[in-house]
């Protein structure tokens, strides 16, 4: 079964015409991954929005939930888990605290340190959101066969490790 020409094919053809001296083949993979990532992000964010969360807020709540009882982490640890600056993390925590989904307290043994934890409402919200998130990811991945999904997962894991 042949897949019809797509947007990336057209871009490559234009570049090949304009710059025949360049090998534009990498665009076939990178361009499609970029477009797919943008589409997946939009599909995922739709679920977060239904739960009153942004992507970043979902990430913070999920990182706290994965910590296990008592569902707490230091702000710096949260920043590392979600790959944002501590300043950006502070803003996310402020918003989540204002929504009643997290609380902050002084770290034991360190008067200056803080610990962020899920409130009961925060745990309930992330549990509901994560359940829908997993159903949504399954729906998106069902476009591939189980074998294709395993193969793609392996290829992506290897590629990430190499670069």
Automatic annotation (TrEMBL):
* UniProt-recorded Gene Ontology molecular function terms: DNA binding; DNA-binding transcription factor activity
Give one Pfam family, short name only.
MarR_2
HTH marR-type domain location, by residue? 26-161
Keyword Metal-binding (UniProt): no
Q: Which InterPro entries match?
A: HTH_MarR-typ, MarR/SlyA-like, Tscrpt_reg_MarR-type_CS, WH-like_DNA-bd_sf, WH_DNA-bd_sf
Any one biological process term the GO annotation gives: response to stress
Q: Which UniProt keywords apply?
A: DNA-binding, Transcription, Transcription regulation
Task: Say which domain of life the source belongs to.
Answer: Bacteria
- Which PANTHER family did the record assign? TRANSCRIPTIONAL REGULATOR, MARR FAMILY, TRANSCRIPTIONAL REGULATORY PROTEIN
Name the chain's protein: MarR family transcriptional regulator
């Amino acid at each position: 079964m042949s897949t019809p020409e797509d947007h990336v094919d057209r871009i490559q053809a234009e570049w090949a015409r304009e710059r025949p001296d360049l090998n534009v083949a990498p665009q076939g993979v990178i361009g499609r991954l970029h477009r797919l990532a943008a589409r997946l992000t939009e599909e995922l964010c739709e679920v977060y929005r239904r739960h009153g969360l942004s992507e970043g807020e979902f990430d913070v709540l999920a990182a706290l939930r994965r910590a296990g009882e008592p569902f707490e982490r230091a702000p710096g640890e949260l920043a590392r888990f979600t790959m944002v600056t501590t300043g950006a993390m502070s803003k996310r925590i402020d918003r989540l605290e204002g929504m009643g989904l997290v609380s902050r307290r002084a770290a034991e043994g360190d008067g200056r340190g803080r610990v962020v934890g899920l409130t009961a409402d925060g745990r309930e919200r992330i549990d509901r959101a994560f359940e829908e998130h997993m159903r949504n990811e399954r729906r998106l991945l069902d476009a591939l066969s189980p074998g294709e999904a395993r193969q793609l997962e392996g290829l992506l894991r290897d590629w990430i490790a190499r670069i």
